Amino acid sequence: QVQLVESGGGLVQAGDSLRLSCAASGGTFSMYAMGWFRQAPGKEREFVSTISRSGGRTRYADSVKGRFTISRDNAKNTVYLQMNSLKPEDTAVYYCATRYAVVSDSLYVRGNEYTYWGQGTQVTVSS
Length: 127
Known about the structure:
Structural class: mainly beta
Number of helices: 0
Radius of gyration: 13 Å
Shape: globular
Largest sheet: 7 strands, mixed
Number of strands: 11
Strand content: over 45%
């Protein structure tokens, strides 16, 4: 059983930056691909970014490409989401998710591909 705990959310102004962290426990972190998703009020959960278990491959939603950066530190069992140039439309609860990845460079963009989820952290961007 893998546990995920997100942190780093908050209230910021448009144009500001935030860095989200997701600490994992209960598994061999380097064997798991990681993803970030978000859900705004009244909307469905959507994919934000994913990183392979080795950290060598990443993918982003078009809406965040060029502004967000995903990274991971396998020594610290933590994945990060650096969010720059935040916009009001980035306001959402952000969730990290993970799944065991047999292939080291596999990426997963669909929520139903993930096994474990964190509790979420709120990000609010004011205009």
